[in-house]
Design a protein that fits this description.
The chain has three domains: 2-62, Alpha-Beta Plaits (2-Layer Sandwich), CATH 3.30.70.2700; 84-265 and 467-518, FAD/NAD(P)-binding domain; 269-461, no CATH class. The protein is built from 13 helices and 22 strands. It has helices at residues 11-14, 17-28, 92-103, 117-130, 164-173, 193-206, 252-260, 280-288, 371-386, 398-403, 430-446, 489-492, 498-518; strands at 2-9, 35-46, 53-62, 84-88, 107-111, 210-212, 217-223, 226-232, 237-239, 243-245, 266-267, 271-279, 305-308, 311-319, 323-326, 336-339, 348-356, 393-397, 419-421, 456-461, 468-469, 485-487. α3 runs parallel beside α13 (498-518). The protein is globular, with a radius of gyration of 24 Å. The N and C termini lie far apart (51 Å).
Length: 519
């Protein structure tokens, strides 16, 4: 017989299979020798009380054999001679759209402005060490998109958008650890994700799809309000009646192209702020309420939401045991983001701390759908100037930031291009600066010890989501104006992370195929 139970154990007990079996035996009044197997379905940490507990959801097998499920990708057929669908962008939306196209019997042609994951690393090194920004190959552009080298977090609240477990299983099938099916906040890690992305690409090619790197979209060919194909920077034209536009939230040239061609786009509100770095040991002490977390607890994350002067201010993309990365996509701007390796074993913790912006914060949004993007760009350019016109980031110690003091000195942080002591009030508009200053004081009321000069504020964290929405029909997913154009994922304003982008990619592929089959 198989039974399902939920139990709470200490971290030490939850790390030991025999302890779990003993606890289940006592909880369910089942003799321990009759328990033939225990399969952990879900695991989460409850640190609300001083004694930290691990919540486990279990399948318990009593006098019954348990065979572990081997998760593999679907059996994809060869689609080399099938109808073609162009997919612009090889991020999670584009890659999962391509896999779904193959599954449904259509040939995907992915064009990606950046490089494959392995070659891309050289440009990241040049960005970190030599401060050279390659506009087509950086932390945002290239195979796998922004998520490849910015942490690989798989947690999403978008349960209503699609089948999260299906995406997780596909990732496991392509090499991710099965633990992502179990953990409440699953995470692959920036060091592990590139190999998984490469395996997905190889499967797409093996099944007859195409993946064209260093191929930048420069025009969308349209005839009678119907997609006819694309043109690339090299001058090549690729014909197709269906285009999935999955370019990510930083492809400003695509937004400008659509606007120039009078293809409807809209300004979209987003969140903006800073990225703050603490010693991980301090975050552990605050969150776990102990001097040392010990060997059975992972580096602690945190999540805070406050209302400051009528605006939401919250932690975003928190990276325990992580690193702050330079994420500019053009020379003359500074952008920060964060990531963690799979073991989350770095000595520092960082998080974006951002405030919600409104369309009323931007100038002439009705006349200019690029207004929010231009607001974002202006702050990034100011940060570049304050940092010394390099990829060094302007920074302040956290208490100094709240008091409006330029820090006399700054510690070395995980941000490899380096930091420059500056007044971040010169980077942000006053309403953002003042809200952040007040908000950090409120944060300290929820996490005593958070407000410390051992923490360093890096500016800005500005690429939280797309500043533009590309409107689409809610049923067909086609652009409201152009037939055969399917705005998709984060860049179009319909996703916010790896999982939700992958789900949206699959759904766009399904709508493409459905439209082709019905025409």
């Amino acid at each position: 017989m198989k039974y399902q139970y939920q139990i709470r154990l200490s971290p030490q007990e939850a790390a030991n299979e025999q302890h779990i079996k003993r606890a289940v035996s006592g909880h369910a009044s089942i003799p321990k020798e009759e328990i033939t197997a225990i399969n952990i379905l879900k695991r989460s940490i409850d640190a609300r009380q001083r004694a930290v507990k691990i919540n486990l959801k279990l399948d318990v097998y009593v006098n019954e054999k348990f065979t572990e499920e081997k998760i593999t990708p679907p059996e994809y057929n060869n689609v080399s001679d099938k109808e073609e669908i162009i997919i612009v962008g090889a991020g999670p939306a584009g890659l999962f759209a391509a896999l779904r196209c193959i599954e449904l019997g259509f040939k995907p042609i992915i064009i990606e402005r950046g490089k494959d994951v392995r070659t891309r690393r050289r440009d990241l090194k040049a960005l970190n060490i030599e401060h050279i920004v390659n506009e087509d190959s950086n932390y945002c552009f290239g195979e796998g998109g922004a998520g490849t080298y910015s942490d690989g977090k798989l947690y999403t609240r978008s349960k209503k958008r699609g089948d999260v477990d299906r995406i997780l299983k596909l990732l496991v099938g392509f090499g991710a650890t099965p633990e992502i099916m179990v953990d409440a906040h699953p995470h692959i890690g920036t060091n592990k994700l590139p190999a998984i992305i490469a395996d997905i690409r190889e499967r797409i090619i093996a099944c007859g799809g195409e993946v064209l790197f260093e191929t930048r979209l420069t025009d969308i060919l349209i005839e009678n309000n119907q997609v006819a194909g694309i043109k690339t920077l090299s001058g090549e034209s690729i014909k197709a009646k269906k285009i999935i536009l999955a370019t990510g939230h930083s492809a400003r040239d695509i937004f400008e192209l659509l606007h120039k061609k009078n293809i409807k786009i809209e300004a979209k509100a987003f969140a903006l702020g800073v990225r703050v770095e603490h010693p991980q040991e301090l975050i552990d002490q605050i969150q776990y309420k102990c001097d040392s977390r010990g060997e059975f607890l992972p580096p602690s994350p945190y999540s805070i939401v406050k209302q400051i002067k009528g605006r939401g201010m919250y932690s975003f993309c928190m990276c325990p045991g992580g690193i702050i990365a330079p994420c500019a996509t053009s020379p003359g701007e500074v952008v920060t983001n964060g990531w963690s390796p799979s073991k989350r074993d770095q000595p520092t913790a960082n998080s974006g701390i951002v405030i919600e912006l409104r369309l009323s914060d931007f100038v002439n949004v009705k006349e200019n759908p690029l207004a929010a993007m231009e607001f974002q760009k202006k702050i990034e350019q100011k940060a570049w100037l304050e940092g010394g016109s390099t990829q060094k980031v302007p920074a302040q110690r956290l208490v100094d930031f709240t008091q409006g003091k330029i820090s006399e000195n700054l510690p070395i942080t995980s941000y490899k291009p380096g930091v420059t002591s500056a007044d971040l009030g010169n980077v942000f508009p006053e309403f953002i600066h003042k809200t952040l200053q007040e908000g950090f004081k409120e944060f300290n009321k929820s996490m005593r010890g958070f407000l410390t000069n051992d923490a360093v504020v890096h500016a800005p964290e500005s690429r939280t989501s797309s500043p533009v929405r590309i409107p689409r029909d809610p049923y067909s997913f086609e652009h409201v104006q152009i037939k055969g154009l399917y705005p998709c994922g984060e860049g179009a304003g319909y996703a916010g992370g790896i999982i939700s982008a992958a789900i949206d990619g699959e759904r766009c592929a399904e709508k493409c195929v459905e439209s082709s089959q019905n025409s």
